[in-house]
Amino acid sequence: MKYRPFGKSGREVSEIGFGAWAIGGGWGPQAEADSLAALRRALELGVNFIDTAAGYGNGKSERTIAEVLAGLDDPSAITVATKTPPTPGIWPPSPYCDMDERYPEKYLRENVAERMEMLRTDRIDILQLHTWTRAWNRDPRPFRTLRKLQEEGKIGLVGVSTPEHDQNAVIDLIRNGWIDSVQLIYNLFEQEPAAELLDTAAEHGVGVIVRVPFDEGSLTGKFTPETVFPEDDFRRNYFAGDRLERCIRRVDAIREDLRDSGYTLPQAALKFILAHPAVSVVIPGMRNALQAGLNCSVSELPDLPEPLLRRLRRHNWRRAFWYSGK
Ligand SMILES: NC(=O)c1ccc[n+]([C@@H]2O[C@H](COP(=O)([O-])OP(=O)(O)OC[C@H]3O[C@@H](n4cnc5c(N)ncnc54)[C@H](OP(=O)(O)O)[C@@H]3O)[C@@H](O)[C@H]2O)c1
User: Fold this and answer.
1) Are 238 and 21 in contact (CB under 8 A)?
2) C-alpha–C-alpha distance, residues 177 and 174, integer Å
3) What gap in Å lies between CA 11 and CA 191, rounded to an integer?
4) How far apart are CA 156 and CA 171, in angstroms?
């Protein structure tokens, strides 16, 4: 496993981190034994960065992580990033949402205390606001609260996760020094962060966490037009209507470019992200030990050759906002 600096924080993080959404639920049936095995295998293979959130099974993902960390000799060697969501309401927040209603100080303090309880810690390594709107950029008061919590020693680093329809909304937060880390979508389809967001983060020493490297699975190449997602799998909605079919056509074109390259699709998907020097850590979701092994081993593969990297950039796809379904 290779390690990279996490912005200017002084932390060194494994370039492959553990995405812990699916182990919290919402992705169809998930056996707890598989979740525990996935996490333990990833840590054995050198992963020292885990991303989770309050919303991943209402604390379930955080509790599973706490259980695994409790079994380690030195849990403090692992960086855990979690997220506080806005109070219930429109997601992502609309331009008309009031930040003092969606992220009020009292609520933020209570929610951070709850994250500590779930993670069995008295200090959260990285606390990210789970979503944001550029409507709040001119006076981002919720980050004042998080900076206070940081001064009080309850939070290590302050971060934000981008709203997926307007990722560049967080550029002002970076430029104005409000955040130490940013979580964003950057993958073979979604390459817009290469325009400005990634470089801005690097220039300001902000740690970059790349989420959704496989486009929720499509970029592993395993879906077919016949793929049916279980009832309680959010991908039923994400890939609703003609979306799955449109994805598969584009994935086939990527596969063509990878022919004889020596890389499988999931390997190339992760290596493509790691080729950008601003990236600190990519956090594929891992549901079992097999996936943990496959994803962690990618760190040791050779970097993508420049001509292949250039070919893969052609698959940039600006397709707008899918999370709320059709
Ligand atoms: N707003 C936010 O802040 C936000 C939003 C989304 C995600 N995230 C974070 O980013 C992490 C990563 O994103 P994600 O988990 O949503 O999606 P992803 O990493 O694009 O896809 C993960 C899924 O792909 C499948 N998979 C993983 N490794 C594989 C392999 N080697 N071969 C074949 N299939 C494989 C697994 O699902 P199956 O086995 O079911 O196919 C897994 O759950 C999350 O876990 C979460 O921590 C944050």
Assistant:
1) no
2) 5
3) 26
4) 21
Query: Is residue 53 pLDDT above 80, yes or no?
Result: yes
User: In CATH, which of 3.90.1150.10, 1.10.730.10, 3.40.50.10320, 3.20.20.100 is domain 3-313?
Assistant: 3.20.20.100
**Number of other residues whose CB lies within 10 A of the CB of residue 241:** 10
- What pLDDT, in 10s, does the model give residues 252-268? 999 999 999 999 999 99
Instruction: Kindly indicate the confidence band of residue 187, based on its pLDDT and cuts at 50, 70 and 90.
Output: very high
**Residue 320 predicted with pLDDT over 70:** no
Ligand 1 — pocket residues by CB below 6 A? 19-22, 27, 51, 130, 161, 183, 211-217, 220, 222, 266, 283-287, 291, 294-295
Predicted pLDDT of residue 162: 98
Report how far residue 295's alpha carbon sits from residue 309's, in angstroms, rounded to the nearest whole number.
Answer: 19
Going from N- to C-terminal start, the domains of the chain cover 3-313
Burial class (CB in 10 A: 0-12, 13-18, 19+), 198: buried
